[in-house]
Amino acid sequence: MSVIIQPSLFAADMGYLAEELKAIEASGITELHVDVMDGSFVPNIAFGPDQVSMLRPLTKLKFDVHMMVVNPDRYIPRYAEAGAEVITVHAEACVHLHRTLQLIKSLGKQAGVALNPGTPLDVLDYVYDLLDQVLIMTVNPGCGGQKTILGLTEKIKRLSEIKQANQYGFAIQIDGGINKDNINKLIEAGAENIVIGAAAFQRGKTKSTLEEFVALVK
Q1: So where does substrate get bound (predicted)?
Q2: Which of 33, 60, 154, 192 has the largest CB neighbor count within 10 A?
Q3: Is 39 left (phi over 0), alpha (psi -120 to 50) or beta?
């Protein structure tokens, strides 16, 4: 199984953003996790479509936009236009989840659904065929620096079983508190796409730090 590492832009030093993007590319990583927060669904505010549009010319990294916002349908077309390749919405934030996923797909983008720690997998029962990825939150969303809830490995395992039994094509992504000590346990549970936040970015050492993560998952 090939495991993808996605550094989370929210954890980067904004004062050295162009430098950090170059460090990510130099490490051999090809994808970037872009957290969008509205101050309502989660307590923080981050990365509007204008900021994503400004970032787009700076890097060839694939933009995976994680929308932690209420009623994401309002903004999905703008993030698609800004340069997102993947758009992930929270099941808890969507009034009509199936319709929201149809909207993302109609714009030519890959579609994902994120589930908070307390949200069961069965909310996805009738949308699996529309999904390119499922994001299992391993912390409660919106704040960096939290510890991974390792009890959620059972949720990841169950999702992997559902995927294999039905031959679905979606990727299993995880996000929250991932570090060098717990990453392999989560991969063993079935995670295929790993979002790395605070553990990824170290001023002047981001490239070597990410190379260490890449080596761990080979």
Answers
A1: 8, 66, 142-145, 175-177
A2: 33
A3: left
